[in-house]
């Protein structure tokens, strides 16, 4: 049942009534469920019917232990019956990409390079096809090693990001939940923490900062039990900072951001074969967003400029997002000429970049600048913007359906 998306969602929401209903639907009688968690059947029916919810930590722990639900799925510490994953991490996985699974690593890297330049909209189907045809059959092969599960986790997490890039956030969440399962099965703690960071990021993008805080915290706890990887800790603390800033917890957010910068400043050789890199350009870009939410415009502007300078041209999508952020910051600060200057560079970004997220953020940017259309240079820029948007919509019609009646 740990592969049942309904169960994973119920656990994530800590909805034990839903968990009990799923168990009952699988043939576990209400009498056995009540006996296993030592509650009356009347109380069980209240949970199952939604009249009340499980709130006490001790009962969550008892449910996890009774049905062998991993503690992590319920936001609990590792249960005593769970294996010590830290002792099972294969050392070669952290140091030797050429070891077993090198073919999978090469595939992950190939998809990763293409995604950075072309966007996930056109690559999603290819990744899912590879998972289905090349990876899934090996997951049930008794001779397969834990590295197959690591490959499945890395590629499934990548599929999640590509779904998100295509504007399908519900699908992305399901991919991340499955990637978390595969990462846990691989025994690779850093990879599991990495997927938790992605889940946190998606939660923030979909407007749930509380869930984003939860998953960032889970990731930090997992990372602390595994090999010391400063860039992973930097990413997790950055996600925590952004979620806290969005929740208006300004002091803890600033502290988490300080931890992120301190971790990445260590400059340790912390490469991990399955993790996508988290570099100084990415940290600067996320810091600009966090400082914007914190209301610290000067620091947001400094990091926004730094993100554009540090990001290499080959990372088309990342550079596009960094420029969008910088245009917004300039506009919010009232420097419309600077916003137009960066915005002009933004229009030169590859118009065939297959990213629905980019299109949506560009539209939001147009709405922001549209408030200043009475300023001549902005009005002229918006005319060029609309021409570029029309061309982009035509070139991306295969992944972004045109509205009825043509372009608007």
Automatic annotation (TrEMBL):
InterPro entries: Cro/C1-type_HTH (IPR001387), Lambda_DNA-bd_dom_sf (IPR010982), TPR-like_helical_dom_sf (IPR011990). Signal peptide: none annotated. SUPFAM superfamilies: lambda repressor-like DNA-binding domains, TPR-like. GO terms for molecular function: DNA binding. This is Uncharacterized protein.
